[in-house]
Write a structure and sequence with these properties.
Layout (H helix, E strand, L loop, with lengths): L5 H14 L5 H30 L13 H19 L3 H9 L10 H18 L9 E2 L2 H30 L2 H9 L20 H11 L3 E2 L1 H29 L1 H9 L11 H9 L1
Antiparallel strand pairs: 1-2
Helix pairs in contact: 1-7, 2-5, 2-7, 3-5, 4-5, 5-7, 6-8, 8-9
Length: 277
């Protein structure tokens, strides 16, 4: 990876524009406020997820009495994929652009989206009501081996997010574009890095984090099954959007690159895999 890499060049251009913002105190103040809010909430959401799953969802702040806790936890599971997917639709993106009053709502839509997603994740993992049942807790060498696997899945998720466009995934595109007074420029269809191996590395990496945990409870199993299903099904909707946006380019990419399972070998099975994906 070099400075000529389009992903690096795009980030450098965005950072340079943000470091020298044109005059406009209110615009600058709004951009910086949204940036701080976005990344603070993002950090809380991600850290809450890492912490809660590390303990198999047995450690959280939810205290809804049973059996109502089952309903509350189910709603927490459902709210993320439903809202997350809706906001990616044409209607949802229009709503995002109108959430902030004034002329900058459209520019800040990716930042607003990241804030909402982070609040959703924080709610899921901080407000979960644990069942109190622990099936398995790794110890000794097994504990350290699983911890290493857990860390590896998170590194994989970070790599996939960078390959897809770190500025979009983190919400930085919106507020940095507003700060630099430039039009947000979305990255092209991702085809480099992990996207050369499978079409949906972010969803696969996210699913892997659900299973590489040192503590297993009924709570973790329900979460893992639910969100693994989401990670397998939701990208189909994303790919329909890509079909409309990129046309033949995406069709060629889809023929050449499998959906979520890497190919073990090239050659005769390539064409067949591409058509089945």
């Amino acid at each position: 990876m070099t400075l000529s890499d389009p992903r690096i060049a795009r980030l450098i251009t965005l950072v340079i524009a943000a470091l020298r913002p044109p005059a406009g105190r209110r615009r600058i103040a709004l951009a910086l406020f949204m940036g701080v809010l976005c990344h603070a909430v993002f950090a809380v959401g991600v850290l809450a997820m890492m912490w809660a799953m590390f303990f198999g969802m047995s450690e959280s702040f939810g205290s809804v009495p049973w059996p109502w806790a089952f309903v509350a936890n189910a709603l927490l599971i459902l709210q993320f994929p439903l809202v997350h997917s809706f906001l990616l639709t044409k209607r949802g993106m229009g709503l995002l652009a109108r959430m902030l009053p004034g002329p900058h709502g459209g520019t800040l839509s990716t930042t607003t989206y990241a804030i909402i997603a982070s609040v959703q994740l924080g709610a899921l993992f901080l407000l979960w009501t644990p069942s109190g049942i622990i099936w398995y807790r790794a110890e000794g060498l097994a504990f350290w081996a699983i911890c290493a696997a857990y860390a590896a899945t998170w590194l994989l998720l970070m790599k996939a997010s960078f390959d897809a466009g770190a500025e979009v995934q983190s919400g930085a595109l919106g507020w940095m574009s507003l700060l630099g007074k430039i039009k947000p420029k979305f990255p092209d269809m991702p085809t480099q890095g992990l996207f050369r191996i499978i079409r949906q590395p972010i969803y696969v990496a996210f699913a892997l984090t659900l299973w590489a945990v040192p503590v297993w409870t009924p709570d973790q199993l329900v979460l893992a099954l639910s969100y693994t299903a989401y990670c397998l099904l939701a990208p189909r909707l994303k790919e329909k959007r890509f079909e409309k946006r990129y046309g033949d380019a995406f069709d060629r990419y889809r023929r050449d690159v499998p959906y979520v399972m890497p190919r073990l070998k090239n050659g005769a099975g390539k064409s067949e895999e591409g058509h089945n994906a």
